[in-house]
Specification:
This protein is an alpha/beta fold. Helices cover about 35% and strands about 20% of the residues. The chain has ten helices and nine strands. The strands form two sheets. The protein has a six-stranded mixed beta sheet, with helices on both faces. α7 links the parallel β6 and β7. The radius of gyration is 19 Å and the shape is globular.
Length: about 280
């Protein structure tokens, strides 16, 4: 009997999406008076189709810059980013990249339903009403189809934002601290929601986060970046099977990995603590 696939072994559906290759990328921002800031340098990373990667590191280390280059929102100064062996601008032009930021960017005058229908109109495609209805149910917002963003909680707005980022079934999902502005309880709930959504449709996903627990709960691998200019300091494979429940997060093994990665971040940030 053949061995089960990784997706079958942890209860996921078959993976899809495009692989990502970051080929020794660097990014320099020009400043005034001939000065410049080097955000990231010499970053090389391969991400498999359907893999979930978390990027962590000290503030200002270039995590968001790296993600924005994957999203074709920034061009590398050196090196190249390829998504499915092509320039990410090609996938962006075909609306095959899904992006969600900390600011949900929902249009306040549109309902939940019409915010989710918007990507179809931008892509000049017929609106798939069944797909929208399925996503509304998947993110737990059935009954709120006609609600405006101001009538929703922060967590509900972020669920709409994530649903909108995947409504066109992208090959890559890029998330830049989508839960960063939420309280701890809501954030934990949405972490569980995101894991459930991703397991139902394991598209290639890259998450930028400052939260080590969040990275361990969601990712297959965690990439730790050094202080600016950001380089890859460490890559850690997450060994816990999915779905990762609260029982997993309370285990000694989970806490040991949290402590290890937190110590790495403290060392990279130059914060070794003080006695007493």
């Amino acid at each position: 009997m053949a061995a089960p696939t990784a997706a079958a072994a942890d209860g996921r559906h078959a993976v899809r999406g495009a692989p990502i290759e970051v080929d020794y990328v660097g990014k320099v921002y020009p400043m005034r008076r001939g000065r410049s800031v080097e955000a990231v340098t010499d970053v090389a990373l391969k991400i498999a189709a359907g893999e979930f990667i978390a990027l962590i590191g000290p503030s200002g280390c270039g995590k968001s810059t790296l993600l924005r280059m994957m999203a074709s929102l920034e061009a590398p100064t050196t090196g190249a980013v390829r998504v499915g062996a092509a320039d990410p601008r090609e996938l962006a032009a075909k609306h095959r990249l899904g992006v969600a930021f900390q600011d949900n960017a929902l249009l306040p005058w549109l309902s939940v339903y019409t915010n989710l229908a918007l990507p179809y109109r931008v892509a000049r495609r017929p609106v798939d009403k069944q797909r929208i209805a399925e996503l509304i149910e998947l993110v737990g917002l059935k009954g709120f189809e006609d609600a405006r963003p101001k009538q929703l909680s922060g967590g509900m707005r972020q669920r709409v934002s994530i649903a909108r980022s995947i409504v066109l079934e992208p090959e890559v999902l890029l998330l830049d601290e989508p839960f960063g502005a939420l309280d701890a309880v809501t954030r934990r709930r949405l972490n569980a929601e995101l894991q459930r959504i991703w397991m139902a449709d394991p598209v290639t996903t890259v998450l930028v986060t400052h939260d080590v627990d969040e990275a361990l709960l969601l990712a297959d691998r965690i990439v730790v970046l050094s202080p600016r200019p950001g380089r890859i300091a460490k890559i850690r494979t997450v060994p816990f099977a999915r779905p990762r429940t609260t029982e997993v997060t309370r285990s000694p093994e989970f806490h040991a990995m949290v402590d290890e990665l937190t110590a790495d971040l403290d060392m990279l940030s130059g914060d070794r603590g003080t006695d007493g």
